[in-house]
Amino acid sequence: MDIHDRVRAAVRPERVVEIARALCSLPSPLGEEGAVGALVARLLHQPGIEVQHEDVVAGRPNVIATVRGAGERPPLVLNGHLDATVHLDGWSHDPFDPWVADGCLYGGGITDMKGAVAAMIAATEAAAALGGLPGDLILQAVMHHDGTGLGTKYALASDGPEAGFAICGEPSELAIHTSNGGAVKFEIELHGRSAHICRAEEGIDTLPAALAVYAALGRHAFSCEPHPRLPDLPRMLIGQLVAGSSPAHVPARAVLRGDVRTVPGLGRDAVRRQLAALVDDASMRVPGHAGAFETAVVRALRPDLIQTAVVPRRAGSAGQAPDARIRIERPGALRALDGYTDDPASGLTVDATAHLDAAVAALAAALIAFATT
User: Fold this and answer.
1) What are the b/e assignments for 62-100, b being 16+ CB within 10 Å?
2) C-alpha angle 265/263/64, rounded to 5°?
3) In the predicted model, what is the mean pLDDT of residues 356-360?
4) Average pLDDT estimate for 123-150
5) What is the b/e burial string over 107-129, where b = at least 16 CB atoms within 10 angstroms of the residue's CB?
6) How confident is the model at residue 165 (pLDDT cuts 50, 70, 90)?
7) Residue 40 carries which DSSP code?
8) Is 277 within 8 Å of 216 (Cβ atoms)?
9) How far apart are CA 352 and CA 22, in angstroms?
10) I need a surface site. Which of 33, 57, 70, 249 has the fewest CB within 10 A?
């Protein structure tokens, strides 16, 4: 039996279904990856597989599994995240009680990305059973992928590898993506002064400046070189605008939070500089809101080790004004959309399925390529 037949025989569709059911039955929203991480570690404790189950922060583990090869080729990494956002509205069944219908497995978080993690676990089991790999096969099942890609960064910084091949299981409709955008999350704070409605003229209202900044952000086109493989990037979205504390008071603070998806060459510092200039210009155009600005950059290698550097931008001009602060997180991988259900009437993307035959075929192709090229 040649390597192609051996691989196809080693990866069983029913095993992928079994693992995916188990993973999807455990809720694992961002920050609560502990239970599903423990399950992954238990599943991988098998002969021929070295398992490392380590908390990155308390209760939030990475699980790294390695099948040792002969050292003749660089390692192959299979990377997937354990955290999964599941919106509970719009399901016809309990999303945490997975079910099979019409050749597809449905369950909460299966597309992004417990189906892929299940397939990778099955591939790791198959690799251990096959033996004789030319290089190491490494499964990285990581915590906290959202925005900063913290789990993967921690795994690579701690254990590597520094070179080799990698497959990330983010949903792609089984298309091969060879380039990826970055992500920069940011927060803009505008500070003024509160006053009761009876003395509103004594307050400094942050809403006019916030609306001016919001409008300017919507018009902004980032200055960067386009990338031929990422024609839809860069792009920006403002997902939150929060202001004020009560209906009867001038809002002393307004916060805008957004997300920029970037191309190579448009790093976090370039995003910060462009946003800072935009905020400065937009708020200066609002009468009575010209003032001092500060820029703060959050460097998040680990969530319990956050350092903030505050850099004054310029002194205020005459007149009272809110000050502005921009907080930007370190960029991570471009992530897939969440909010999937199985109900077309919900208005959300109907994409909560894992096509079993295609998943097995993709795994077999990856292992065959690794073993024979």
Assistant:
1) bbbbbbbbeeebbbbbbbbbbbbbbeeebbeeebeebee
2) 100
3) 46
4) 89
5) bbbbbbbbbbbbbbbbbbbbbbb
6) confident
7) H
8) no
9) 16
10) 70
Q: State the average pLDDT for the chain.
A: 77
* β-pair partners for 64: 52, 140
In the chain, what are the domains?
Answer: 3-179+336-372 (3.40.630.10), 182-333 (3.30.70.360)
Give pLDDT tens digits for 93-116: 899 999 888 888 889 998 889 999
Confidence of residue 53 (pLDDT cuts 50, 70, 90): very high
Furthest-apart CA atoms within the chain: distance in Å: 86
Task: Determine the angle formed by the axes of helices 3-10 and 356-372, rounding to 10 degrees.
Answer: 140
Nearest alpha carbon to residue 37 among 83, 77, 78: 83
How do beta strands 99-101 and 104-106 pair?
A: antiparallel
Which whole number is the average pLDDT over 39-57? Answer: 96
The DSSP code sequence of 86-141 is ---TT-SS-TTS-EEETTEEE-TTIIIIIHHHHHHHHHHHHHHHH---SS-EEEEE
Identify the three-state secondary structure at position 247. coil
Q: Nearest 5°: CA angle at 167, between 30 and 22?
A: 50
Q: How many other C-beta atoms lie within 10 A of the C-beta of residue 242?
A: 11
Segment 262-287 shows an average pLDDT of: 83
pLDDT above 90 as % of the chain: 34
* Distance from C-alpha of 79 to C-alpha of 53, rounded to nearest angstrom: 15
* pTM of the predicted protein model: 0.71
Letter string b/e over residues 204-219, b meaning 16 or more CB atoms within 10 A of that residue's CB: bbbbbbbbbbbebbee
| Residues sharing a CB contact under 8 Å with residue 333, sequence separation 6 or more, in sequence order | 145, 149, 152, 168, 170, 180, 182, 183
Q: How far is CA 252 from each of CA 193, 289, 318, 333, rounded to the nearest angstrom?
A: 4, 12, 19, 35
Give the range among 67-71, 85-89, 173-177 with minimum mean pLDDT: 173-177
User: What one-character-per-residue DSSP string does 179-231 give?
Assistant: ---EEEEEEEEEE-B--BGGGGGGSB-SHHHHHHHHHHHHH----S---TT-T
